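Much of the work behind modern protein science is quiet bookkeeping, done one molecule at a time. The protein below has been through that process, and both of its lines are reproduced in full.


***
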Amino acid sequence: MTSERVLFGIVLSVFLAGCAGSGSVEPGSAERAYTNPVYGWSIAYPRSWTVDSGNPGFVKISSADKALCAIHSRTVASRTVDEFTDALERDPNRVILARRKISLPNDVIGNDVLARIMGGGKSRRIYILVDGRAFGIDCETYEKDWDRLEPFYDRIIRSFRLGK
């Protein structure tokens, strides 16, 4: 693992540390909900996937078939979500395919970055910054599995809510 990926993991863990907002996730019949007890965010995920919440600042949601979404929480010095995103996307092992704004529940606006990861992977990262608290959702898998898993990633990302 490169130092940039380690740094991203640390940064993403810290930036999920806290955001203001309201609402909770109402999972569908094929989903479960997880609420982070420390940082107050919630998310829905497929019922067959598992959650590793041993570190509340770096929660991993994964499937048996190599799908992974990691949610990072922390406080950052960045003043804008663009500044925060730019700082974390300086990784020579990633090729940015698309970058756009995304609107999530509770009037949360973030950056949505789709990238190819050297070595055959693909990822979609959502960067959110609210009141100095940063959150990152990083969903990734092998490029050959992307089309099959992307709808699950999209549902997980769009279910993200910040608590009060």
In short: The chain has one domain: 3-162. The longest helix spans residues 146-159. The first strand starts at residue 31 and ends at 35.
